[in-house]
Model the fold of this input.
Amino acid sequence: MRRLSSVDAQFLAIEDGRTHSHVCQLTILENTTVDGDPVTAALIADQIAARIDELSPFRWRVREVPFGLDYPVFVEDHSFDIDSHIWETALPAPGTAAQLSEAVGQIASRPLMGATGSGREFGSDLVLVAAAG
Done:
C-alpha cells in the first residue's frame, strides 16, 4: 500500500466523466522486430507480462480511505489482467496523419478504466498510444 501524494490526489479529485487528468504518449515504432517478426499487441503484452513483477505501478489500483479521512492509497491489484490494458486496432486506409490524430484524441479522451494502450498501423510503422494516470 502506498498513499497518493497531495498532487496525485488533486489530479484524481478533478477527474469526472468529462475531465481526465492522465498523461497520454504517442510512440511510433518500426512494425517488425530485429528478427523480422511483426510487432503486435500480443507481442507487446507478452513482453510486459514477462516483466510485470518489476513494474509494480502497473499493478496498482486506487482505493479511497474510509470516510475520506486521508488521501487515497494505491493497493496491489491481485486480479490484474494485462489483456484488459492493451488492445489492437487499425486505422482505415490510407492511415493519414489526420486519421492518426483523430484516433489518438479518441483514446486520450477516455477515462483510465479499461484499455490504456493501442497498437495502430500508420503507414508502414506500428504506433503505440499509452495513457497513464
In short: The first helix runs from residue 6 to 14. Strands lie at 2-3, 23-30, 60-63, 73-76, 87-88, 117-122, 125-132.
